[in-house]
Specification:
By secondary structure, this protein is an alpha/beta fold. It has a domain of about 200 residues: Vaccinia Virus protein VP39 (Rossmann fold), CATH 3.40.50. Strand 6 and strand 7 form a beta hairpin. The protein starts with a helix and ends in a 6-residue tail after the last strand.
Amino acid sequence: MDVLEKQADRLYDDKKYQEALDIYLSLAKKYPKTEKYSIYCGNCFDAIGDTSEAIRYYKKASKLNPVSTVSLLALANLYYNNEDYENAVKFAHMIVKKFPDNASAKLILGNVAYCQRQYEKAFEYYNEVYAQNKKSYIALINMANTCYDLARYVRAVDYATSALKLNPASVDAYIILGNSYLELNKTEKAELNLLKALDFKSDNPWIYNSLSRLYQKSEQWEDALNFGWKSVLFAGDAQEAQHINFGYLLYECVDEKGPDVAVSYAKKWQEAYPKNKLVQYMAAAVLEDKKTKQADTEYVKKIFDAFAEDFDETLIGLEYQVPQLIAEAVVKYFKKDFWKKTKYLDLGCGTGLCGQMLKPVLGYHTATGVDLSAKMLEKARAKGVYDRLENKEIIEFVTQDTGQYNLVTAGDVLTYFGDLKKLFEGVAKVLNLGGMFVFSISENMFNDADYSITPSGRFVHKLDYIMALLKKNGYGKVAQDRKALRNEGDKVVYGYIIVAEKSMIIEK
Protein backbone atom coordinates (compact mmCIF):
# COMPACT_ATOMS: atom_id res chain seq x y z
CA MET A 1 0.00 0.00 0.00
CA ASP A 2 2.74 2.48 0.92
CA VAL A 3 4.60 1.81 -2.32
CA LEU A 4 1.49 2.36 -4.46
CA GLU A 5 0.53 5.46 -2.51
CA LYS A 6 4.00 6.96 -2.92
CA GLN A 7 3.92 6.16 -6.64
CA ALA A 8 0.55 7.89 -6.99
CA ASP A 9 1.81 10.87 -4.97
CA ARG A 10 4.79 11.25 -7.33
CA LEU A 11 2.54 11.07 -10.38
CA TYR A 12 0.23 13.70 -8.88
CA ASP A 13 3.17 16.00 -8.11
CA ASP A 14 4.31 15.56 -11.72
CA LYS A 15 0.80 16.59 -12.85
CA LYS A 16 0.10 13.15 -14.32
CA TYR A 17 -3.33 13.27 -12.79
CA GLN A 18 -5.04 10.47 -14.70
CA GLU A 19 -2.26 7.99 -13.91
CA ALA A 20 -2.30 9.02 -10.26
CA LEU A 21 -6.10 8.72 -10.22
CA ASP A 22 -6.02 5.13 -11.44
CA ILE A 23 -3.87 4.14 -8.48
CA TYR A 24 -5.86 6.17 -5.94
CA LEU A 25 -9.10 4.63 -7.22
CA SER A 26 -7.71 1.15 -6.73
CA LEU A 27 -6.60 2.07 -3.19
CA ALA A 28 -10.01 3.61 -2.42
CA LYS A 29 -11.70 0.45 -3.62
CA LYS A 30 -9.40 -1.76 -1.55
CA TYR A 31 -9.66 0.45 1.56
CA PRO A 32 -13.17 2.00 1.29
CA LYS A 33 -13.16 3.35 4.84
CA THR A 34 -9.90 5.29 4.48
CA GLU A 35 -10.74 8.99 4.19
CA LYS A 36 -7.53 10.15 2.54
CA TYR A 37 -7.96 7.97 -0.56
CA SER A 38 -11.36 9.50 -1.27
CA ILE A 39 -9.80 12.96 -0.86
CA TYR A 40 -6.93 12.04 -3.19
CA CYS A 41 -9.44 10.79 -5.77
CA GLY A 42 -11.36 14.05 -5.41
CA ASN A 43 -8.17 16.05 -5.93
CA CYS A 44 -7.38 14.16 -9.13
CA PHE A 45 -10.89 14.47 -10.52
CA ASP A 46 -10.77 18.20 -9.76
CA ALA A 47 -7.40 18.50 -11.53
CA ILE A 48 -8.70 16.82 -14.70
CA GLY A 49 -11.85 18.93 -14.66
CA ASP A 50 -14.40 16.32 -13.65
CA THR A 51 -16.21 18.44 -11.06
CA SER A 52 -19.12 16.07 -10.39
CA GLU A 53 -16.82 13.14 -9.57
CA ALA A 54 -14.59 15.37 -7.44
CA ILE A 55 -17.63 16.46 -5.44
CA ARG A 56 -18.79 12.86 -5.06
CA TYR A 57 -15.48 11.73 -3.59
CA TYR A 58 -15.10 14.76 -1.30
CA LYS A 59 -18.60 14.13 0.06
CA LYS A 60 -17.74 10.48 0.56
CA ALA A 61 -14.64 11.54 2.53
CA SER A 62 -16.69 13.90 4.71
CA LYS A 63 -19.04 11.04 5.61
CA LEU A 64 -16.09 8.80 6.48
CA ASN A 65 -14.73 11.45 8.86
CA PRO A 66 -17.40 13.99 9.90
CA VAL A 67 -15.01 15.87 12.24
CA SER A 68 -12.42 16.50 9.51
CA THR A 69 -12.36 19.89 7.75
CA VAL A 70 -10.19 18.71 4.84
CA SER A 71 -12.99 17.38 2.65
CA LEU A 72 -15.41 20.19 3.60
CA LEU A 73 -12.79 22.79 2.75
CA ALA A 74 -12.09 21.05 -0.56
CA LEU A 75 -15.81 21.18 -1.37
CA ALA A 76 -16.09 24.85 -0.40
CA ASN A 77 -13.08 25.73 -2.55
CA LEU A 78 -14.30 23.68 -5.49
CA TYR A 79 -17.73 25.28 -5.46
CA TYR A 80 -16.17 28.73 -5.07
CA ASN A 81 -13.80 28.21 -8.01
CA ASN A 82 -16.74 27.07 -10.11
CA GLU A 83 -18.75 30.15 -9.09
CA ASP A 84 -21.37 28.07 -7.29
CA TYR A 85 -21.44 30.52 -4.42
CA GLU A 86 -24.49 29.09 -2.69
CA ASN A 87 -22.81 25.71 -2.12
CA ALA A 88 -19.45 27.33 -1.36
CA VAL A 89 -21.09 29.26 1.48
CA LYS A 90 -22.97 26.17 2.64
CA PHE A 91 -19.82 24.09 3.16
CA ALA A 92 -17.75 26.99 4.51
CA HIS A 93 -20.46 27.61 7.12
CA MET A 94 -20.42 23.93 8.05
CA ILE A 95 -16.71 24.30 8.86
CA VAL A 96 -17.17 27.54 10.83
CA LYS A 97 -20.01 25.96 12.81
CA LYS A 98 -17.69 23.16 13.93
CA PHE A 99 -14.52 25.24 14.12
CA PRO A 100 -15.34 28.96 14.59
CA ASP A 101 -11.72 30.04 14.18
CA ASN A 102 -11.09 28.30 10.85
CA ALA A 103 -9.39 31.00 8.79
CA SER A 104 -9.60 29.18 5.45
CA ALA A 105 -13.39 28.88 5.66
CA LYS A 106 -13.75 32.55 6.63
CA LEU A 107 -11.57 33.58 3.69
CA ILE A 108 -13.85 31.65 1.35
CA LEU A 109 -16.89 33.35 2.88
CA GLY A 110 -15.17 36.70 2.42
CA ASN A 111 -14.28 35.90 -1.17
CA VAL A 112 -17.84 34.89 -2.00
CA ALA A 113 -19.17 38.12 -0.48
CA TYR A 114 -16.58 40.09 -2.44
CA CYS A 115 -17.53 38.41 -5.73
CA GLN A 116 -21.15 39.27 -5.01
CA ARG A 117 -20.10 42.88 -4.43
CA GLN A 118 -21.05 42.71 -0.76
CA TYR A 119 -17.89 44.54 0.18
CA GLU A 120 -18.78 45.43 3.77
CA LYS A 121 -19.58 41.81 4.52
CA ALA A 122 -16.39 40.64 2.80
CA PHE A 123 -14.33 43.08 4.85
CA GLU A 124 -15.83 41.72 8.09
CA TYR A 125 -14.73 38.18 7.27
CA TYR A 126 -11.22 39.27 6.27
CA ASN A 127 -10.95 41.38 9.39
CA GLU A 128 -11.92 38.41 11.58
CA VAL A 129 -9.09 36.39 10.03
CA TYR A 130 -6.68 39.27 10.60
CA ALA A 131 -7.82 39.67 14.22
CA GLN A 132 -6.93 36.01 14.80
CA ASN A 133 -3.57 36.30 13.05
CA LYS A 134 -1.86 39.66 12.64
CA LYS A 135 0.64 38.04 10.28
CA SER A 136 -1.97 36.92 7.78
CA TYR A 137 -0.79 38.44 4.50
CA ILE A 138 -3.84 37.20 2.59
CA ALA A 139 -6.22 38.85 5.08
CA LEU A 140 -4.35 42.17 4.82
CA ILE A 141 -4.19 42.18 1.03
CA ASN A 142 -7.88 41.28 0.79
CA MET A 143 -8.81 44.05 3.24
CA ALA A 144 -6.73 46.51 1.21
CA ASN A 145 -8.42 45.46 -2.01
CA THR A 146 -11.89 45.61 -0.45
CA CYS A 147 -11.24 49.08 0.98
CA TYR A 148 -10.20 50.21 -2.49
CA ASP A 149 -13.54 49.01 -3.89
CA LEU A 150 -15.32 50.79 -1.04
CA ALA A 151 -13.47 53.99 -2.04
CA ARG A 152 -11.69 54.04 1.34
CA TYR A 153 -8.37 54.79 -0.25
CA VAL A 154 -6.45 55.90 2.85
CA ARG A 155 -7.30 52.65 4.64
CA ALA A 156 -6.45 50.70 1.48
CA VAL A 157 -2.99 52.31 1.59
CA ASP A 158 -2.56 51.38 5.26
CA TYR A 159 -3.48 47.72 4.75
CA ALA A 160 -1.43 47.37 1.56
CA THR A 161 1.59 48.90 3.32
CA SER A 162 1.20 46.39 6.16
CA ALA A 163 0.91 43.57 3.61
CA LEU A 164 4.18 44.71 2.01
CA LYS A 165 5.96 44.39 5.33
CA LEU A 166 4.97 40.72 5.40
CA ASN A 167 5.66 40.18 1.69
CA PRO A 168 8.03 42.80 0.22
CA ALA A 169 7.62 41.31 -3.27
CA SER A 170 3.82 41.58 -3.30
CA VAL A 171 2.76 42.78 -6.74
CA ASP A 172 -0.85 43.04 -5.54
CA ALA A 173 0.15 45.37 -2.71
CA TYR A 174 2.06 47.69 -5.07
CA ILE A 175 -0.90 47.74 -7.49
CA ILE A 176 -3.37 48.59 -4.71
CA LEU A 177 -1.03 51.30 -3.43
CA GLY A 178 -0.60 52.74 -6.92
CA ASN A 179 -4.32 52.78 -7.68
CA SER A 180 -5.22 54.16 -4.24
CA TYR A 181 -2.68 56.97 -4.48
CA LEU A 182 -4.02 57.72 -7.97
CA GLU A 183 -7.52 58.16 -6.53
CA LEU A 184 -6.05 60.35 -3.79
CA ASN A 185 -4.41 62.51 -6.50
CA LYS A 186 -0.94 61.67 -5.19
CA THR A 187 0.44 61.13 -8.68
CA GLU A 188 4.11 60.72 -7.84
CA LYS A 189 3.46 58.05 -5.22
CA ALA A 190 1.03 56.32 -7.57
CA GLU A 191 3.60 56.21 -10.35
CA LEU A 192 6.36 55.02 -8.02
CA ASN A 193 4.31 52.06 -6.75
CA LEU A 194 2.95 51.05 -10.14
CA LEU A 195 6.43 51.08 -11.67
CA LYS A 196 7.62 49.00 -8.73
CA ALA A 197 4.85 46.49 -9.48
CA LEU A 198 6.01 46.45 -13.09
CA ASP A 199 9.53 45.55 -11.93
CA PHE A 200 8.13 42.37 -10.40
CA LYS A 201 5.52 41.56 -13.05
CA SER A 202 6.34 43.15 -16.39
CA ASP A 203 3.68 41.18 -18.31
CA ASN A 204 0.67 42.18 -16.15
CA PRO A 205 -1.75 44.13 -18.39
CA TRP A 206 -3.58 45.68 -15.42
CA ILE A 207 -0.42 47.46 -14.28
CA TYR A 208 -0.03 49.02 -17.74
CA ASN A 209 -3.72 49.91 -17.65
CA SER A 210 -3.32 51.69 -14.31
CA LEU A 211 -0.27 53.59 -15.56
CA SER A 212 -2.25 54.56 -18.64
CA ARG A 213 -5.01 55.98 -16.43
CA LEU A 214 -2.42 57.83 -14.38
CA TYR A 215 -0.88 59.52 -17.43
CA GLN A 216 -4.28 60.27 -18.91
CA LYS A 217 -5.26 61.98 -15.66
CA SER A 218 -2.09 64.06 -15.92
CA GLU A 219 -2.93 64.80 -19.60
CA GLN A 220 0.25 63.08 -20.76
CA TRP A 221 -1.52 61.56 -23.74
CA GLU A 222 1.49 60.03 -25.49
CA ASP A 223 2.42 58.09 -22.34
CA ALA A 224 -1.21 57.21 -21.68
CA LEU A 225 -1.62 55.71 -25.14
CA ASN A 226 1.74 53.96 -25.00
CA PHE A 227 0.91 52.19 -21.73
CA GLY A 228 -2.67 51.54 -22.86
CA TRP A 229 -1.30 49.90 -25.99
CA LYS A 230 0.98 47.69 -23.89
CA SER A 231 -1.99 46.65 -21.77
CA VAL A 232 -3.83 45.24 -24.81
CA LEU A 233 -0.68 43.60 -26.18
CA PHE A 234 -0.08 41.69 -22.95
CA ALA A 235 -3.79 40.93 -22.59
CA GLY A 236 -4.10 39.49 -26.10
CA ASP A 237 -7.63 38.44 -27.04
CA ALA A 238 -8.24 36.90 -23.63
CA GLN A 239 -9.03 40.02 -21.58
CA GLU A 240 -11.76 41.97 -23.33
CA ALA A 241 -11.88 44.50 -20.49
CA GLN A 242 -8.45 45.75 -21.57
CA HIS A 243 -9.67 46.29 -25.12
CA ILE A 244 -12.77 48.12 -23.90
CA ASN A 245 -10.58 50.36 -21.73
CA PHE A 246 -8.24 51.06 -24.65
CA GLY A 247 -11.14 51.87 -26.96
CA TYR A 248 -12.49 54.42 -24.49
CA LEU A 249 -8.99 55.82 -24.02
CA LEU A 250 -8.75 56.43 -27.78
CA TYR A 251 -12.17 58.06 -27.79
CA GLU A 252 -11.29 60.32 -24.87
CA CYS A 253 -8.00 61.24 -26.55
CA VAL A 254 -9.88 62.29 -29.70
CA ASP A 255 -12.34 64.25 -27.58
CA GLU A 256 -9.60 66.07 -25.66
CA LYS A 257 -6.71 66.36 -28.13
CA GLY A 258 -8.15 65.67 -31.56
CA PRO A 259 -7.69 62.61 -33.77
CA ASP A 260 -4.03 62.89 -34.80
CA VAL A 261 -2.37 60.78 -32.09
CA ALA A 262 -5.26 58.38 -31.50
CA VAL A 263 -5.73 57.47 -35.17
CA SER A 264 -2.33 55.81 -35.53
CA TYR A 265 -3.02 53.61 -32.50
CA ALA A 266 -6.52 52.77 -33.77
CA LYS A 267 -5.07 51.59 -37.08
CA LYS A 268 -2.43 49.34 -35.58
CA TRP A 269 -4.97 48.06 -33.05
CA GLN A 270 -7.18 46.95 -35.95
CA GLU A 271 -4.21 45.33 -37.69
CA ALA A 272 -3.08 43.48 -34.56
CA TYR A 273 -6.51 41.94 -33.81
CA PRO A 274 -8.21 41.35 -37.19
CA LYS A 275 -10.64 38.71 -35.83
CA ASN A 276 -11.66 40.55 -32.68
CA LYS A 277 -15.04 42.15 -33.49
CA LEU A 278 -14.99 44.41 -30.46
CA VAL A 279 -11.60 45.81 -31.49
CA GLN A 280 -12.64 46.20 -35.12
CA TYR A 281 -15.76 48.15 -34.22
CA MET A 282 -14.22 50.42 -31.57
CA ALA A 283 -11.29 51.22 -33.85
CA ALA A 284 -13.66 51.91 -36.76
CA ALA A 285 -15.53 54.35 -34.52
CA VAL A 286 -12.34 56.25 -33.66
CA LEU A 287 -11.48 56.33 -37.38
CA GLU A 288 -15.08 57.43 -38.13
CA ASP A 289 -15.34 54.77 -40.81
CA LYS A 290 -18.21 55.73 -43.15
CA LYS A 291 -18.71 52.11 -44.24
CA THR A 292 -19.89 51.14 -40.73
CA LYS A 293 -23.69 51.15 -40.70
CA GLN A 294 -24.47 49.81 -37.23
CA ALA A 295 -22.72 48.75 -34.05
CA ASP A 296 -21.40 45.21 -34.02
CA THR A 297 -23.77 43.02 -31.99
CA GLU A 298 -20.90 41.37 -30.08
CA TYR A 299 -19.56 44.82 -29.18
CA VAL A 300 -22.93 45.98 -27.84
CA LYS A 301 -23.48 42.77 -25.89
CA LYS A 302 -20.05 42.82 -24.27
CA ILE A 303 -20.11 46.54 -23.47
CA PHE A 304 -23.46 46.36 -21.73
CA ASP A 305 -22.71 43.06 -20.00
CA ALA A 306 -19.59 44.75 -18.61
CA PHE A 307 -21.46 47.82 -17.36
CA ALA A 308 -24.71 46.17 -16.23
CA GLU A 309 -23.90 46.03 -12.52
CA ASP A 310 -23.42 49.79 -12.11
CA PHE A 311 -25.43 50.95 -15.12
CA ASP A 312 -28.27 52.78 -13.37
CA GLU A 313 -25.93 54.56 -10.96
CA THR A 314 -23.60 55.59 -13.82
CA LEU A 315 -26.50 57.14 -15.74
CA ILE A 316 -27.43 59.29 -12.76
CA GLY A 317 -23.94 60.83 -12.97
CA LEU A 318 -24.49 61.51 -16.68
CA GLU A 319 -27.79 63.30 -15.98
CA TYR A 320 -29.47 60.82 -18.31
CA GLN A 321 -32.92 62.12 -19.24
CA VAL A 322 -34.21 59.81 -21.99
CA PRO A 323 -36.55 57.47 -20.02
CA GLN A 324 -38.23 60.39 -18.30
CA LEU A 325 -38.55 62.33 -21.59
CA ILE A 326 -40.05 59.31 -23.34
CA ALA A 327 -42.52 58.78 -20.48
CA GLU A 328 -43.56 62.45 -20.68
CA ALA A 329 -44.06 62.18 -24.46
CA VAL A 330 -46.15 59.02 -24.08
CA VAL A 331 -48.40 60.63 -21.47
CA LYS A 332 -48.83 63.69 -23.67
CA TYR A 333 -49.47 62.04 -27.04
CA PHE A 334 -50.49 58.40 -26.58
CA LYS A 335 -54.13 57.77 -27.46
CA LYS A 336 -56.28 57.33 -24.38
CA ASP A 337 -58.44 54.59 -25.92
CA PHE A 338 -55.37 52.34 -25.99
CA TRP A 339 -54.42 52.82 -22.35
CA LYS A 340 -56.40 50.02 -20.68
CA LYS A 341 -55.45 47.41 -23.26
CA THR A 342 -51.92 48.55 -24.08
CA LYS A 343 -49.52 45.96 -25.39
CA TYR A 344 -46.13 47.56 -24.93
CA LEU A 345 -42.78 46.70 -26.54
CA ASP A 346 -39.54 48.21 -25.19
CA LEU A 347 -36.70 47.78 -27.67
CA GLY A 348 -33.21 47.78 -26.16
CA CYS A 349 -34.86 47.82 -22.73
CA GLY A 350 -31.55 47.55 -20.86
CA THR A 351 -32.14 47.53 -17.11
CA GLY A 352 -35.79 48.51 -17.62
CA LEU A 353 -35.63 52.26 -17.08
CA CYS A 354 -38.28 53.12 -19.71
CA GLY A 355 -40.58 50.34 -18.54
CA GLN A 356 -40.15 51.49 -14.96
CA MET A 357 -41.09 55.06 -15.90
CA LEU A 358 -44.13 54.04 -17.96
CA LYS A 359 -45.66 51.46 -15.63
CA PRO A 360 -47.13 53.97 -13.14
CA VAL A 361 -48.59 56.27 -15.82
CA LEU A 362 -49.87 53.66 -18.30
CA GLY A 363 -50.55 50.58 -16.23
CA TYR A 364 -50.09 48.71 -19.50
CA HIS A 365 -51.76 45.36 -20.11
CA THR A 366 -48.61 43.51 -21.19
CA ALA A 367 -44.99 44.60 -21.54
CA THR A 368 -42.21 42.95 -23.53
CA GLY A 369 -38.57 43.96 -23.18
CA VAL A 370 -35.85 43.05 -25.70
CA ASP A 371 -32.11 43.45 -25.25
CA LEU A 372 -28.83 41.91 -26.43
CA SER A 373 -27.28 41.91 -22.97
CA ALA A 374 -28.31 39.03 -20.71
CA LYS A 375 -26.86 40.82 -17.69
CA MET A 376 -28.90 43.96 -18.38
CA LEU A 377 -32.01 41.77 -18.65
CA GLU A 378 -31.26 40.32 -15.21
CA LYS A 379 -31.47 43.85 -13.81
CA ALA A 380 -34.68 44.51 -15.78
CA ARG A 381 -36.23 41.28 -14.49
CA ALA A 382 -35.57 42.37 -10.90
CA LYS A 383 -37.64 45.54 -11.46
CA GLY A 384 -40.72 43.42 -12.18
CA VAL A 385 -42.19 45.70 -14.88
CA TYR A 386 -42.11 43.28 -17.85
CA ASP A 387 -44.24 40.21 -18.54
CA ARG A 388 -41.76 38.92 -21.11
CA LEU A 389 -38.06 39.48 -21.65
CA GLU A 390 -36.20 38.43 -24.80
CA ASN A 391 -32.42 38.21 -25.13
CA LYS A 392 -32.25 39.11 -28.84
CA GLU A 393 -30.98 41.68 -31.30
CA ILE A 394 -33.86 44.10 -31.84
CA ILE A 395 -34.06 44.01 -35.66
CA GLU A 396 -34.09 40.23 -35.51
CA PHE A 397 -36.88 40.41 -32.92
CA VAL A 398 -39.21 42.79 -34.77
CA THR A 399 -38.62 40.91 -38.02
CA GLN A 400 -39.60 37.55 -36.50
CA ASP A 401 -42.12 38.44 -33.79
CA THR A 402 -45.79 37.91 -34.58
CA GLY A 403 -47.16 40.08 -31.78
CA GLN A 404 -49.01 43.33 -32.39
CA TYR A 405 -48.26 46.23 -30.07
CA ASN A 406 -49.97 49.54 -29.33
CA LEU A 407 -46.79 51.22 -28.12
CA VAL A 408 -43.12 50.69 -29.01
CA THR A 409 -40.30 52.63 -27.34
CA ALA A 410 -36.57 52.76 -28.04
CA GLY A 411 -34.74 54.91 -25.52
CA ASP A 412 -31.16 55.76 -26.48
CA VAL A 413 -31.04 52.63 -28.65
CA LEU A 414 -30.98 53.97 -32.20
CA THR A 415 -27.65 55.53 -31.36
CA TYR A 416 -26.16 52.07 -32.02
CA PHE A 417 -27.61 51.99 -35.54
CA GLY A 418 -26.70 54.20 -38.46
CA ASP A 419 -28.94 52.84 -41.20
CA LEU A 420 -32.42 52.60 -39.66
CA LYS A 421 -34.32 51.27 -42.69
CA LYS A 422 -34.73 47.65 -41.50
CA LEU A 423 -35.52 48.66 -37.95
CA PHE A 424 -38.26 51.11 -38.92
CA GLU A 425 -39.76 48.51 -41.30
CA GLY A 426 -39.71 45.91 -38.52
CA VAL A 427 -41.36 48.21 -35.98
CA ALA A 428 -44.07 49.08 -38.53
CA LYS A 429 -44.73 45.35 -38.95
CA VAL A 430 -45.41 44.74 -35.24
CA LEU A 431 -47.17 48.05 -34.49
CA ASN A 432 -50.96 48.23 -34.62
CA LEU A 433 -52.57 50.82 -36.84
CA GLY A 434 -52.89 53.95 -34.72
CA GLY A 435 -50.16 52.73 -32.39
CA MET A 436 -47.14 54.85 -31.55
CA PHE A 437 -43.39 54.51 -31.89
CA VAL A 438 -41.61 56.76 -29.39
CA PHE A 439 -37.82 56.97 -29.53
CA SER A 440 -34.76 59.13 -29.14
CA ILE A 441 -31.98 60.01 -31.56
CA SER A 442 -28.74 61.90 -31.05
CA GLU A 443 -28.46 64.93 -33.33
CA ASN A 444 -25.87 64.97 -36.12
CA MET A 445 -24.27 68.41 -35.85
CA PHE A 446 -20.93 67.29 -37.32
CA ASN A 447 -21.53 66.84 -41.06
CA ASP A 448 -24.20 66.63 -43.78
CA ALA A 449 -24.57 62.84 -43.74
CA ASP A 450 -27.89 61.19 -42.88
CA TYR A 451 -26.07 59.35 -40.13
CA SER A 452 -22.51 59.27 -38.91
CA ILE A 453 -20.49 57.15 -36.49
CA THR A 454 -18.62 59.04 -33.77
CA PRO A 455 -15.45 58.08 -31.86
CA SER A 456 -17.61 57.10 -28.88
CA GLY A 457 -19.00 54.19 -30.92
CA ARG A 458 -22.43 55.84 -31.15
CA PHE A 459 -24.24 57.10 -34.22
CA VAL A 460 -25.79 60.52 -34.72
CA HIS A 461 -28.63 61.21 -37.18
CA LYS A 462 -30.07 64.05 -39.22
CA LEU A 463 -33.68 64.83 -38.38
CA ASP A 464 -34.63 65.05 -42.09
CA TYR A 465 -33.38 61.48 -42.61
CA ILE A 466 -35.52 60.22 -39.72
CA MET A 467 -38.65 62.03 -40.92
CA ALA A 468 -38.27 60.75 -44.50
CA LEU A 469 -37.78 57.18 -43.27
CA LEU A 470 -40.83 57.38 -41.00
CA LYS A 471 -43.01 58.66 -43.83
CA LYS A 472 -41.77 55.92 -46.16
CA ASN A 473 -42.85 53.27 -43.63
CA GLY A 474 -46.34 54.58 -43.02
CA TYR A 475 -45.76 56.63 -39.91
CA GLY A 476 -47.43 59.96 -39.38
CA LYS A 477 -45.43 62.60 -37.54
CA VAL A 478 -46.95 63.58 -34.22
CA ALA A 479 -44.18 65.39 -32.36
CA GLN A 480 -40.47 66.07 -32.26
CA ASP A 481 -38.79 67.80 -29.35
CA ARG A 482 -35.13 68.80 -29.24
CA LYS A 483 -33.78 67.99 -25.79
CA ALA A 484 -30.60 67.57 -23.76
CA LEU A 485 -30.37 63.78 -23.53
CA ARG A 486 -27.29 63.15 -21.38
CA ASN A 487 -23.76 64.29 -20.70
CA GLU A 488 -20.57 62.89 -22.21
CA GLY A 489 -17.63 64.17 -20.21
CA ASP A 490 -18.16 67.90 -19.84
CA LYS A 491 -20.32 68.12 -22.98
CA VAL A 492 -24.10 67.96 -23.27
CA VAL A 493 -25.47 65.57 -25.90
CA TYR A 494 -28.50 66.99 -27.70
CA GLY A 495 -31.03 65.05 -29.68
CA TYR A 496 -34.73 64.53 -30.29
CA ILE A 497 -37.58 62.69 -28.65
CA ILE A 498 -39.77 61.66 -31.56
CA VAL A 499 -43.34 60.41 -31.40
CA ALA A 500 -44.59 58.73 -34.59
CA GLU A 501 -48.03 57.22 -35.19
CA LYS A 502 -48.59 54.32 -37.56
CA SER A 503 -51.12 55.94 -39.88
CA MET A 504 -51.11 53.53 -42.83
CA ILE A 505 -50.00 50.06 -43.83
CA ILE A 506 -47.26 49.99 -46.44
CA GLU A 507 -47.13 46.81 -48.51
CA LYS A 508 -43.55 45.56 -48.97
